[in-house]
């Protein structure tokens, strides 16, 4: 369904009449419904098959609603399934307890079909959005980052974080694209992205933007990484290594070499999710990000593939060599900033 | 409890309307299957002075009975539920006896309505 309001639902109630009543109403609204008569069975079913939402009774033998909630909200596999408590009106204190334990919403029995539809629709929509965000994170982050973000939850609001921003793109890509077939160009881009993602992910970075032949990556956010400056520079060196391997392959096939430029800057960035409820992405903005983009452009001017700012350079240990490029007036900056290049042939 | 007023007709008709005439029979059958078990559980809980079990059984009877429009019956079950909640079953034996007796009237009337 385009609106995402139809789902696979689990009704948990020890009372058969209640189960049938709820199940029937939900089926009439187009949902696929399965039923469990106690909490233990419900958890078994939740582990066995994917569900979009659970309607949970509180009073049940074997395992009651509280116990199910406790298990489900602390289980990584189940914690994102919304749970709606179905209760009698006089159980309001119990409902409060359930909401505090992590239940998404509650409905009083006997359930009003109109209210049922509205609440289920809203919960499914929220779940759909969360699923989409998780999917996005999975695509753009390492599995460690994605898992960690799922554990810590998705903070939708923006915040200031200390991080390193990286921009990279292919030099003279338009010329390359004009000299080969469109299929070859897309193939090249896919190979390029695969290699760059690997280098960045290996160092704990997250690629959060890809535009044409360029990409932006963040180190130190969303996951805190104490030595994000060093990781970013190491990733840049790995990227250059990988491009050299790719070029050896391309030369063997009689194709032209490609070159990339990388700009890196560190400092405070504003990080968070941006977009709409249909499409959202994790992104970082701020002066640090702009500086990284300017440095990437500046690689063309100095003819060196990796340029970093002073903050990144001062955070590097002695293991990585850098060369001062002096103070540079970058576009959009009011003052000159110290720029350093990173020689690419320094690894053993 | 008089047989004609035992089921609140507007509630019952609304349920039948929203669930469908076929389904109401299935639903009533589930009610006929479950309620005697719940009544037995209620009596058992009373004998053992198990207030928690007593409250649960009364709660279940109340919620399903109200769904069918057995409102008076449901109110009696609710009184019992409250006794269980307050952990005081002093006045319960008489009311449990009445609930068991009333159930046969509820069942009879509900059967009539479903097949009538």
What labels would you give this structure?
A: about 350 residues, alpha/beta, Rossmann fold, Alpha-Beta Plaits, 8-stranded mixed sheet, 13 strands, elongated, B: mainly alpha, Four Helix Bundle (Hemerythrin (Met), subunit A)
Short description:
By secondary structure, chain A is of the alpha/beta class.
Q: The CATH topology of the largest domain in chain A, please? A: Alpha-Beta Plaits
Unreliable spans of chain A are: none
Number of helices of chain A: 11
Distance between the termini of chain B: 21 Å
- Label the overall shape of chain A: elongated
Largest interface: A-B, 17 and 19 residues
Order of helices and strands of chain B: HHHHH
- Main sheet of chain B, how many strands, which sense, barrel? none
Overview of this protein structure:
Chain A has helices at 16-28, 39-48, 65-74, 92-101, 113-140, 143-152, 173-178, 182-202, 228-252, 287-302, 310-315; strands at 8-12, 32-36, 53-57, 83-87, 105-108, 159-170, 206-211, 214-219, 260-275, 280-285, 306-309, 323-328, 337-341. Chain A has 348 residues and is of the alpha/beta class. Chain A has 2 domains: 8-139, Rossmann fold (3-Layer(aba) Sandwich); 143-341, Nucleotide cyclase, GGDEF domain (Alpha-Beta Plaits, 2-Layer Sandwich), CATH 3.30.70. In chain A, helix 2 (39-48) runs parallel beside helix 3 (65-74). Chain B has 116 residues and is an all-alpha fold. Chain B has a single domain (9-115), classed as Four Helix Bundle (Hemerythrin (Met), subunit A) (Up-down Bundle). Helix content of chain B is 83%, strand content 0%. The A-B interface holds A 14-18, 20-21, 24-25, 28, 59, 61, 88, 90, 109-110, 113 and B 18-20, 23, 26-27, 30-31, 33-34, 56, 59-60, 62-64, 66-67, 81.
């Amino acid at each position: 369904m385009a609106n995402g309001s139809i789902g696979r639902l689990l009704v948990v109630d020890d009372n058969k009449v209640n189960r049938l009543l709820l199940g029937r109403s939900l089926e009439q609204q187009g949902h696929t419904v399965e039923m469990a008569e106690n909490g233990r069975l419900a958890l078994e079913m939740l582990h066995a098959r994917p569900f979009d939402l659970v309607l949970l009774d509180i009073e049940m033998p074997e395992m009651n609603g509280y116990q199910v909630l406790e298990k489900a909200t602390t289980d990584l596999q189940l914690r994102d399934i919304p749970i709606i408590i179905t209760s009698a009106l006089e159980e309001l204190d119990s409902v409060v307890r359930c909401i505090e334990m992590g239940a998404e919403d509650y409905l009083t029995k006997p359930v009003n079909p109109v209210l049922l539809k509205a609440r289920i629709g809203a919960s499914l929509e929220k779940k759909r959005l969360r699923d989409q965000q998780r999917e996005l994170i999975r695509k753009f982050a390492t599995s460690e980052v994605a898992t960690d973000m799922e554990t810590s939850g998705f903070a939708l609001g923006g915040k200031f974080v200390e991080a390193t921003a990286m921009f990279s793109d292919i030099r003279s890509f338009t010329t390359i694209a004009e000299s080969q077939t469109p299929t070859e160009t897309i193939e090249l881009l896919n190979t390029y992205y695969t290699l760059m993602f690997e280098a960045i992910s290996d160092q704990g970075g997250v690629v959060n933007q890809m535009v044409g032949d360029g990409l932006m990556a963040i180190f130190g956010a969303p996951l805190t990484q104490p030595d994000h400056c060093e990781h970013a520079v190491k990733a840049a060196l790995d990227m250059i290594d990988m491009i050299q391997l790719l070029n050896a392959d391309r030369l063997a096939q009689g194709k032209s070499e490609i070159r990339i430029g990388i700009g890196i800057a560190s400092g405070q960035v504003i990080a968070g999710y941006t977009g709409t409820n249909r499409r959202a992405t994790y992104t970082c903005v701020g002066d640090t990000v702009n500086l990284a983009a300017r440095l990437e452009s500046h690689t063309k001017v100095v003819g060196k593939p990796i340029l970093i700012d002073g903050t990144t350079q001062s955070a590097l240990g002695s293991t990585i060599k850098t060369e001062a490029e002096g103070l540079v007036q970058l576009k959009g900056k009011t003052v000159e900033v110290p720029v350093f290049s990173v020689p690419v042939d320094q690894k053993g | 409890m008089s047989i004609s007023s035992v089921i609140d007709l507007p509630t019952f008709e609304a349920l039948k309307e929203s669930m469908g005439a076929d389904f109401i029979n299935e639903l009533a059958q589930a009610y006929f299957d479950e309620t005697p078990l719940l009544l037995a559980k209620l009596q058992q809980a009373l004998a053992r002075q198990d207030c928690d079990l007593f409250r649960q059984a009364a709660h279940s009877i109340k919620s399903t009975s109200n769904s069918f429009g057995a409102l008076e019956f449901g109110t009696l079950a609710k009184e019992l539920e409250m006794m269980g909640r307050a952990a005081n079953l002093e006045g319960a034996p008489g009311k449990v006896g009445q609930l068991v007796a009333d159930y046969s009237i509820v069942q009879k009337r509900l059967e009539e309505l479903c097949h009538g």
